[in-house]
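Why do we care about 3D structure at all? Because function follows from shape, and shape follows, mostly, from sequence. That is the central idea of this module. The next example makes it concrete: a single protein chain, its amino acid sequence, and then its structure expressed as tokens.
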Amino acid sequence: MTALTDAATARVYKAHAKPAWRRFLLTREAAIIALLILVVVVALASVRNFDSPLTVTYLLRDIAPILLIALPMTLIIITEEIDLSVASIVGLSSVMTGLLTQSGVPFPLAALAAIAVGTVAGAFNGFLITVVGLPSLAVTIGTLALFRGIAVGLLGTTAITEFPEEWTDLAKANIPGTPIPVIMIPFVILAIIFAVLLHFTPFGRSLYAIGLSKEAAGFSGIDVGRTKFQLFVLSGAVSGFAGVYFTLLYSNARGDNAMGMELQVIAAVLLGGVSIFGGRGALHGVIAGVLLIGTLGSALRLASVSSDIINVITGLLLIVSVISSSLLAWLQVRRAAAIGKKKGRSAESADPA
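And the structure:
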């Protein structure tokens, strides 16, 4: 444990001792961005209608919920935790939006109530993990089924499809003069907030410290439990907002909305360079990872590739990402150990006594 911690510390110090251009260009995040650019160039050259403004619009609309949820998920995984209940919170908030709207509640109040429900669901996860002390994987697997069951139980097998037209039109609208959906405006605002929070504040640095060693972070004065609780609350709130958008986009409130989305979110976060073992990752890499998966899927669909093959390719990308991350970490530990042995031999040869 001590050797691994020392190696991780040496890696962090050495990384920040490098020139700025190396820290930004020779990284996994830069590799994902380069791969995204390559996929876009290849798709433009070989896939018909990929450069259509309509394609860009539908691509961004489809991945907008994943982009939103990936923001807090990045922070959670950096602390070596995980939240598998996000998609079921999307479904639960969608059902709450539909039921409240159907009962005559003004849509803005219904949307706020749905986001509040998502926030409470995230707080429930955080309570079980940080106060009760249960592992996040077990807790969120359980609440995934719990929240999904509540959503399906409230609405049954029916669907609510009547929503105010001005709100559904807004969810499907584009920024005037561009093919970019309006939903990208709140996403960009949230992305800036989360990026500043993660990369430019003491709170963000505490997340990396917790991911590297929660014991050391606790001894250094970081309230590990409160920090993780706040992250799960944020995850629930953003998932609730994504549920409201999902409902308006498809004009459909159902208990099984967003089924399986949690796997797409986690795949994009890991592909974007965040370590599943915590302590490493950057938000721009995650955004590039989501765009890469979305762009690749859109290009393959336009090329008449079946959804099964697309899922296989996405799964392979995720496996390669995790394996490469583990392999690089193992190589860094071995290299640090070899350097330590070499320095030890040099010290012995310099001092024969």
